[in-house]
Amino acid sequence: MTDLRADSLPPQGAPVRLWGRALRSRNLVVGALLTLVFVLAAVLSFLWTPYEVTGLDIANKIKPPSWRNPLGTDHFGRDILSMIMVGARVSIAVAVVAVGIGMIFGVPLGLLAAARKGSLLDEVIMRANDLVFAFPSLVIAILITATFGPSAVNAIIAIGIFNIPVFARLTRSGALTLWQRDYILAARVAGKGAARISVEHILPNVTNLLIVQGTIQFSLGILAEAGLSYVGLGAQPPTPSWGRMLAESQTMISFAPHMALFPGLAILLTVLGLNLMGDGLRDLFDPKLRGRT
Amino acid sequence: MMTNKPFALGLAGAFALTATLAVAQQSDMTIGQQLEPPHLDPTSAAAGAIDSVLYSNVFEGLTRFGPDGSVGPGLAREWEISDDGLTYTFHLAEGVKFHDGTTMDSEDVKFSLDRARAEDSVNAQKALFSGIESVEATDPATVTVTLKNPDGNFLFNLAWGDAVIVAPESIENIKTTPIGTGAFMFDNWVQGDRIELTKNPEYWGEPAMLDAVTFKFISDPTAAFAAMMAEDLDVFPAFPAPENLPQFDADPRFKVLVGSTEGETILAINNKLPPLDDVRVRQAIAHAVNRHEIIDGAQFGYGTPIGTHFAPHHPDYVDLTEMSQHDPEKARTLLEEAGVSLPLQLKMTLPPPSYARRGGEIIAAQLRQVGIEAEIENVEWAQWLEATFRGYDYGLTVISHTEPLDINIYARPDYYFQYDNAEFQKLMEEVGVESDPDKRSEMFRQAQTTIAEDYVNAYLFQLPLLTVAKTGVEGLWENAPTQAADMTAVHWAE
User: What does pTM read for this prediction?
Assistant: First the structure.
């Protein structure tokens, strides 16, 4: 294949070209690496953490970073590195499930609305989405968790609900342009029903859009989880969570900055990584948009 | 910035004038407080924040608490007690006027006490007045109070913020415009922000040394720290973040006062919830708890360990901490004896103060060592009062009981820890009518031992009063025998 120029590659060579482009995209590589680090830390935390995160060691409280505790200890003498690793697990779990909820409900709704464009059903679905959109998501998430009690599960549900309209709208708008295509017309002529067309032809072609948006929503989910735990409505102690680590370290920031710095950096780097990755993926899938922000 | 006086004087105009005045005068003070009062009537609500602002400053009672917790004369300058201990004759101070100009006399005292003990009274501490048979205004300067039974605590009861003297003329708007007899007059309340008091120029006693006092409400510990550091506040009694005290201590601009409160901080146990109704399980919890770790971890070392529900600075206090020494081995044995299947799941509700949130997390880790899984639920005050305090929907909770001499709450079977011991209830009834001090002391010691032996709750530590003040502030209460920020003797050093 070396004698072929890149743009003359046959269509079946597309995946190869995609990988090559992906590796050359700095955003994507850096973003993916950052994300990978935190995913690996979270996975590793199931098997091993430097210290037990539920065991307190008051005698060793508020120690700055050292060989013993690379990121120092918190006000209960817990190892901050271990807590960030387990906290990554919570953050990622909340974000994954929340994005999952958004996709599972949002995508079928979007496909349905597109397939029945202009019908009453379309109107109902999309106006209901607008209704959810109209409220600031974090405020409603606080309302939900405050009403049903603070817990990681309620945080997931609260964040997940606000992902539904995002995916529903995206899917609908993507699907609407596809419905105009000739191959869809061909499929209809061949006698395929709207449901089957949606699943077999529309869905595979909006996947790129969904992946890009999913990455962005994932980072927003992590931020929302951190925000909810910061105000005490996320995962409850003793489960470590980045947002609560920040909140608890707040009064000690002037004499123990490491306690706020590391969970803060963890949130920053994960969100940055996911956003870079999202940007990179968008560039990759939709070259027309490259260079735009 | 404003220390450069000649320069400030050199500037023309109003700015220079105000700047110089601010430097020269220093006759006002801004006090930081975490909780804002819901309203301003100390005689109809339990909220301690009301007393913190108004006790002794705006409202006065017949007797009053001194900074050391002793009970001294207030509006009643002296009194006689009949030999049978039933009749108290109070002689009121002369020439006392309410802030609205009306005279304070025996009729106002009768009105206040009758109102507090009336059938439809909403006084939060009605029990304080339940022993009163009648109140007579003998003449304008004399009040005679007759009791149903002798009560050694009566003068103490009258010193409470719930027993202050109010006037029938101003009672209607007391919740927004409190009119009292104190050395400060209520001036302004900007809800959500501050309450302003000004000096009462016609005060009957020793006049206040400050011209104006502002109470500023800052609930967030971080904001409190920042406001104090920025010198927006002059004093913060009951500073909420003990971890910041070393910084204030090291800063020459500030001083830190470490005193005691009446707050017994306990791990309250729901005595009716199985298996917590078994004394062995409660004893196991008490032995699983390590007080020193809690004081160190949650309070950064500030706090005195207690072994029963009594203030360690009280002369009748008995040190019973030995009965519940940290002994996880013993705790496990006791749980086994009680036949509890481990891990035992218990719900632990934690109200907002840091002693509860942090203390609870430490206790949960300690309980886990003996096989008890305390499921932490962080709640707001309203939720805590609703579900835990009134709804009994909890297994464990961490809370500080800040009323003075409040061991009698254990005689109330419907109180939230639901401790029902007829013998103890009888003992409290007896102590209520006993006026011989020695016998009373003996009874209080007995009561402390009883609740410690029954392991009603796990007793943690006495809540300290941590006050941060600017270096020049003098005359502050170092301890909190009652919830009050008495500003009447506070002043700036020369």
Answer: 0.81
Shortest distance, CA A188 to any CA of chain B (angstroms) = 56
What is the rounded CA–CA span in Å between residue B368 and residue A237?
Answer: 13
Instruction: Return the CATH number of the domain spanning residue range B61-170.
Output: 3.90.76.10
B308 in helix, strand or coil?
coil
What fold is seen in the domain B263-463?
Dipeptide-binding Protein; domain 3 (3.10.105)
Residue among A54, A237, A254 minimizing CB distance to B247: A254
Q: B246 vs A232: CB contact, 8 Å cut-off?
A: no
Contact A251 B221 (CB under 8 A): yes
Q: Which residue from A58, A236, A252 is facing B376, i.e. has the nearest CB?
A: A236
Q: Decide if A256 contacts A14 (C-beta within 8 A).
A: no
Q: Is B247 on the interface with A (CB under 8 A)?
A: yes
Which pair of tokens denotes residue B116?
């507090």
Mean pLDDT on B281-288: 96
pLDDT digits (tens, 9 = 90+) for B68-122: 888 999 999 999 999 888 999 999 999 899 999 999 999 999 999 999 999 888 8
| B340 in Cβ contact with B281 (< 8 Å) | yes
Nearest-neighbour CA in chain B from A96: distance (Å): 25
Q: What is the CATH number of domain B28-36+176-259+465-492?
A: 3.40.190.10
Rounded Cα distance, A132 and A1, in Å: 51
Residue with tokens 């206790």: B363
Helical packing angle, A152-161 and A80-115, nearest 10°: 30
Q: DSSP string covering B85-131, please? A: S-EEEEEEPTT-B-TTSPBP-HHHHHHHHHHHHSTT---TTGGGGTT
Closest CA–CA distance from residue B349 to any residue of chain A (Å): 11
Domain boundaries along the sequence of chain A: 87-237+248-285
Residue B159 CB partners (closer than 8 Å, separation 6+): B61, B63, B64, B65, B71, B74, B482
Domain ranges of chain B: 28-36+176-259+465-492, 61-170, 263-463
For A238, the closest of B241, B296, B364 (CB atoms) is: B364
Asked if B148 and B133 count as a contact pair (C-beta separation under 8 A), the reply is yes
Burial class for B101, CB neighbours closer than 10 Å (0-12, 13-18, 19+): exposed
Say whether B296 and A58 touch across the interface (CB within 8 A).
yes
Q: Cα separation of A124 and B201, whole Å?
A: 69
CATH class of A87-237+248-285: mainly alpha
Chain A residues whose CB is inside 8 A of the B244 CB are 251-252, 254
Is B118 an 8 Å CB contact of chain A?
no
Q: Give dist(CA B490, CA B29) in Å, integer.
A: 9
Q: How confident is the model at residue B21 (pLDDT cuts 50, 70, 90)?
A: very low
